[in-house]
Write a structure and sequence with these properties.
Chain lengths: 220, 169
């Protein structure tokens, strides 16, 4: 759609038009033209995606040296607030995004998986740096790549990646969020059937614990 | 640092006090080291504490593979008044890696001993809470031993994706 910019001299005219509209003084034909010029149509899905991609709450979560670079994107030079991603949340319940910034040891992996499971849909994950993508220089007995225990949406290579690189990854993820249909991560990665369930025979008694049951769609 | 002469004098002093307690001395690059009998490690350290080396600056493990006895536990003692250091080294065989814990003498030895146990499998007898400290509780093997596989896994690139796919999952 081509946008025609009216000359500045028309500003006074438009102000009068707007005043007439608000007063209800506008005629049928004039009113129709007025609305036509100003209304944009889209689908709800696209509108939600646009809003969602511009208001991501990342989890306040750093693992290693990459976390220093991750902090830099919140600071003034990179300023992730330009894209609405600056509200870092200290609770996984409030976060939409987890940035794995550093190496994941096999002792830390269950913790990260639990944080990921505690995050509410819709949720995304960025694997930052060589270590949690391919174990990098620490390719030894102690580490595990992030793809082994959780789905990753964007991998940012580097050791560590510069803040610009992470920024690029964030923009790629924003494109993904804005472009995709609104499905959960299990649908995105065909991961149904990997839900964490209580083993048979375990009785929780009367304890009021929120446990995922097959068929539930939210959370978990 | 004690010089080589003083090291020998200290070693002889310890031998006189505790029979066969010092097996050897090493003096290398201004570092004085007493090679101790692991069964007498506590009397030796007590003696050094009485001499003024009151602080256990570090406790760590070494694997000397392929030399025997393979494992080593090193105690770095520090005299804070004279700013003087001396190392005590105890060598252990892998089939019986037992040594007395020094936690009752140096409370700060608690975590270092757990780490040496975790990484090298040295059992510190008398330790109040000898568990793994860095690796998961159910981990098998002692990863810092030289004969332990480095681990890790081949990185999946586009060219070897086919041959590796599913193999290490």
């Amino acid at each position: 759609m081509e946008i025609k910019r009216e000359p500045l001299s028309n500003l006074r005219v438009r102000q009068h038009q707007a005043r007439d509209l608000l007063r209800g003084d506008m005629d049928d034909e004039e009113l129709e033209r007025y609305v036509e010029e100003r209304v944009l149509t889209t689908t709800v899905e696209k509108a939600v995606g646009w809003a969602q991609g511009n208001s991501i709450y990342p989890l306040t979560f750093g693992l290693a040296c990459c976390a220093i670079e991750m902090m830099a994107i919140v600071a003034a030079r990179m300023d992730v607030a330009r894209f609405g991603w600056e509200a870092l949340r200290a609770s996984p319940r409030q976060a939409d995004l987890i940035i794995l910034s550093g190496r994941v040891s096999i002792k830390m992996a269950p913790v990260i998986r639990r944080l990921w499971d505690q995050m509410l849909e819709p949720k995304w994950a960025i694997s930052m740096g060589a270590c949690c993508s391919s174990m990098g220089v620490f390719n030894n007995y102690a580490l595990v790549p992030a793809d082994k225990f959780m789905p990753i949406d964007v991998h940012v290579p580097g050791c560590p990646p510069r803040p610009e690189a992470l920024m690029h990854g964030i923009l790629r993820l924003r494109d993904k969020i804005q472009g995709q249909s609104r499905e959960g991560w299990r649908e995105r990665y065909a991961a149904t059937g990997t839900e964490e369930l209580l083993p048979d025979g375990v009785n929780l008694g009367t304890a009021d614990i929120n446990v995922f049951k097959p068929g539930d769609t939210a959370g978990a | 640092m004690p010089d080589a002469t003083e090291l020998e004098l200290t070693a002889q002093e310890l031998r006189d006090a505790h029979r066969d307690s010092i097996l050897d001395t090493e003096y290398h690059r201004d570092r004085a080291c007493l090679v101790a009998d692991p069964r007498q490690i506590k009397p030796i350290l007590e003696h050094l504490v009485d001499k003024g080396y009151t602080m256990l600056a570090s406790l760590h493990g070494v694997d000397y593979y392929p030399h025997e006895p393979r494992l080593g536990v090193l105690y770095e003692m520090l005299d804070r008044r004279r700013v003087d250091r001396i190392s005590v080294k105890a060598r252990l065989h892998t089939d019986d890696p037992h040594i007395d814990s020094v936690v009752d003498m140096f409370p700060g030895a608690d975590f270092p001993e757990r780490e040496v146990y975790d990484m090298f499998g040295v059992v510190f007898d008398g330790h109040p809470d000898l568990r793994r400290i860095l690796m998961p509780e159910d981990y098998e093997g002692f990863p810092q031993r030289r004969d332990f596989p480095v681990g890790g896994e081949p990185v999946l690139f586009t060219f070897n994706e086919e041959q590796n796919y599913g193999k290490y999952v």
